[in-house]
Specification:
It is built from 8 helices and 12 strands. Strand 9, helix 6 and strand 10 form a beta-alpha-beta unit. The protein has a single domain, classed as P-loop containing nucleotide triphosphate hydrolases (Rossmann fold). It has 235 residues and is of the alpha/beta class. Bound molecules: adenosine-5'-diphosphate and magnesium ion. The site of magnesium ion has 3 residues, from helix 1.
Length: 235
Amino acid sequence: MFEAKDLNVSIEGLVKLKGINLEVNPGELHVIMGPNGSGKTTLAMTLMGHPKYKVESGDIVLDGKSIRDLPMYERAKLGVFMSFQHPVEIGSLRYLTFLLEVLRKNGKTPDIDWIKRIFNKMGLSEAFLNRNVNTGFSGGEKKRAELAQMLLLSPKYAILDEPDTGVDVDSMKFIGGAISESLSRGTGVILITHYARILNEIGKGFYVHIIADGEIKAEGGPELAKKVEEQGFGE
Ligand SMILES: Nc1ncnc2c1ncn2[C@@H]1O[C@H](COP(=O)(O)OP(=O)(O)O)[C@@H](O)[C@H]1O
Ligand SMILES: [Mg+2]
């Protein structure tokens, strides 16, 4: 199980998350929704261990052990994956070189044919592997490449920060497909999204957590996501 326990987080001295509790089991989908600026990315970055986000109190626990003091790469090695809301472009690093390194660091045996197959599965031709990381990729291509990484790594837990924002319908299908596949392989997924659309694409039961002002304000199932889509986050 991947848990946030009464997490209180600050950025540069300002309180951003208050008393967050979350329990994610293998193969479960947990959807985080909330207005802009409510703390969704803060939660994602904190769970992954970005040094800018300071855990003031509370704990982050992976399979019974606290990981709150571990750096990002250690968490990744233990099987926590994150895809970023704004994937960075790295102009001097070939995507294939980057992936081979990521896989090696995570104890996987890199296999170029397998990488090509996963890229193709995400609707990305092999040519993308020869390009520099995300450089000149469209929004949808960046997100699809991020989710290709998830499929390659088969993490225990994946935190996906708005993988469906700013992408076209085709990308949405590829991204929904990758999430479904990961869930069926047993990955526990925390999905930050604004849209119920991606949830229809996934077509599986899920839990919804509504966050506002750094606090979880409501929790429920698919009906809550539907209500949010129809009525917004108003009271
Ligand atoms: N690096 C930062 N420095 C200072 N404040 C930040 C930083 N990142 C985010 N914030 C602030 O923290 C709050 C939560 O932001 P964020 O977690 O990115 O929201 P969301 O992802 O829900 O849109 C916002 O008020 C935002 O302005
Ligand atoms: Mg965000």
